[in-house]
Each structure stands twice: as C-alpha cells, then as structure tokens.
Design brief:
By secondary structure, the protein is of the alpha/beta class. The C terminus is likely disordered. About 45% of the residues lie in helices and about 15% in strands. The protein starts with a helix and ends in a 13-residue tail after the last strand. Helix 5 links the parallel strand 3 and strand 4. The chain folds into three domains: about 80 residues, Orthogonal Bundle (Arc Repressor Mutant, subunit A), CATH 1.10.10.10; about 90 residues, 3-Layer(aba) Sandwich (D-Maltodextrin-Binding Protein, domain 2), CATH 3.40.190.10; about 110 residues, D-Maltodextrin-Binding Protein, domain 2. The protein is built from ten helices and eleven strands.
Length: about 300
C-alpha cells in the first residue's frame, strides 16, 4: 500500500467532503481513490469514512488521524524538494593539476548529457586522497600503481627543444664539454608533484642510480610552474606525460629501457557515484588525464617529437 497516496485521499476527503471531489483534486480515478481509502482502513484497523448517498464524512477515528496524515504529507513533499536539490548538487571530483581546462570542460559536458553535474578540484595526489577520505569531495582520481589502475598514462621526458630519439637515463650521466647556457643542460630530470609518489619516484630513482646518476639530478619540485621555469631557463627535462608536455608547450620523448606510467583510478565513498561517473565520462576523463584504459595493450609510448 502507498501510505502517502492514501493519506492524500483521506485529507482531501476531509477538506472536500466527497471521494469524487477528492479524486478530481488529486487527478486520479474515483475507483482508485476509493481503493486507497479501503487499503488505509485495512492498514490502520478502523473505518475512516461514513458514506451517504451524496457525501463522505470522516469518522471520529479518521479525524483523530487527520493531523498525523497532514504531517506525513508535508514531510513527503519536503523530501521530494530535498531530493530535487540533492540531484542538482554537483558531484565534486578531485583531479590532477595537469588536466587542461578545455579537457575538463569536455568531461563536464559529457556528464551533463548523462544528467550529472560535475565540479572539479585540481590537487596533487596526497591532497586528493585526503579530500576523499574526509568527504570534502565525493570522488577522487587516485594515483595508483599501474596494476591497480583503470587508466594508464605513459611517462617520458619533456624539454624545451625537440629531439627525434628516445631518452636513455645514462645519457644524463655526463655533462658535455663546451656546452653553453643556451644548450639544453640535459643532466637533470625534474619530478613534479603528480609524480612524487612512491610507485613512480622510487622506481625512477632505482633505475637512475643503477646507471650512475646522482641524487641531485632528480630534483623534486613542489609545483609544475617551478618545474617549467627550470626547463625553460636551464634546459632541464621534466618527467611528464605526452599530453602534459603539449599543454606546457614542451617537446616530449619516451624512455628507452625504462617503463614508467601514471596509474589512475576513480575512488569515492559511494560505489554508485563511482559507477555513475565512470559510465558517463570514462573516455572523456581518460583524455583529460592524458591516459588510456589499462586494458589497452599499446600503452607504453607515444611518438617523440620530430
């Protein structure tokens, strides 16, 4: 039995003195209104109407219940309003700072087509984890190892000048004799905040030390702006994805003998939120991350700049 619908009939009969007029006010058939009253009588265990040829009058039992019925209806109406407001509240998603404004706008547009309102907060990995843990955002694009990822973004080195060859880490080992400041220094590979996570930083450090690089050749920057300034001013290289390099106006090339990748997955307290957003914007979100689905077989590299 629909308790709310039955209470609406009861209140309307009390106000209008007729099941027929109550049915008209509620825009239902008279037979439907009558069945709702009968179901409510059975549910509550007492007669609600005293019927005459021309009218229906509430019984004393029904009149005693009328205030509660009105409160129940009012609460139900308030709940519907609250639900409408909740549907309009955007789903906040913490995303990496490197996502371009345009790509995130594409994600937002795809979400709107699916009936979702999305709102983005650009934060580094640790901050994204904190925000979703404290429920400050509903969802977060978490940085995870490749084997746990839904999307993978291969990493390479980006510099201010184009190079037609992939980068070997041991190419950074020795400074070239007679190099001027206008040459690409090429001895430092800078790590930005997005890649300052153990599964990327530690793997790169082990590989770098194995070929004889010094700790100072893998500086970690707190902002991408700082990293980019060093690339432009000193000719350093930046660890990043191909998409990020294009966004920064740099020339990207893959590594040789080293496979590094950012792994991303969507997390949140509500699995239904995760499923709804993933179903609606998974391709668009992957593009914003400069990534491809983890199930894609060709995920290792992009072509270096010519």
């Amino acid at each position: 039995m629909d308790l709310i619908a039955a209470c609406r009939v009861l209140v309307e009969v009390g106000d209008r003195g007729s099941v027929t007029r109550a049915a008209i006010a509620l825009e239902v058939a008279q037979s439907v209104a009558s069945r709702r009253v009968l179901a409510l009588e059975k549910h509550l265990g007492g007669p609600l109407l005293e019927r005459t040829a021309r009218s229906a009058v509430l019984t004393p039992f029904a009149r005693d219940l009328l205030p509660s019925a009105r409160r129940l209806i009012r609460l139900a109406d308030e709940m519907e309003v609250d639900a409408a407001h909740a549907r309009l509240r955007p789903v906040t998603i913490a995303v990496p700072p490197g996502c371009s404004t345009r790509e995130l706008a594409v994600v937002d547009a795809a979400g709107r087509v699916a009936g979702l309102r999305l709102e983005f907060r650009a934060e580094p990995p640790a901050r994204r984890a904190d925000l979703v843990a404290t429920r400050s955002v509903r969802l977060s694009v978490a940085s995870v190892p490749s084997e746990e990822a839904a999307w993978i973004a291969p990493l390479g080195a980006a510099g201010r000048r184009a190079s037609g060859v992939a980068l070997r880490l041991d190419d950074l080992r020795a400074a070239r004799v007679g190099r001027s400041r206008d040459d690409d220094a090429g001895t430092r590979l800078r790590i930005g905040p997005e890649d300052d996570v153990p599964h990327i930083r530690d793997a790169l450090t082990r590989s770098a030390f194995a070929v004889g690089l010094l700790p100072g050749q893998l500086p970690v920057d707190s902002t991408v702006t700082s990293s980019l300034a060093s690339v432009l001013a000193d000719g350093d290289l930046l660890l990043c994805t191909g998409a990020e390099a294009r966004e920064l106006g740099l020339h990207w090339r893959p590594f040789t003998g080293l496979r590094l990748a950012r792994g991303f997955t969507l997390v949140g307290e509500s699995e239904s939120d995760v499923a709804a957003v993933a179903a609606a914007v998974t391709d668009e979100l992957a593009a914003a991350l400069g990534a491809v689905p983890a199930s894609t077989t060709a995920t290792q590299t992009e072509q270096p700049d010519a």
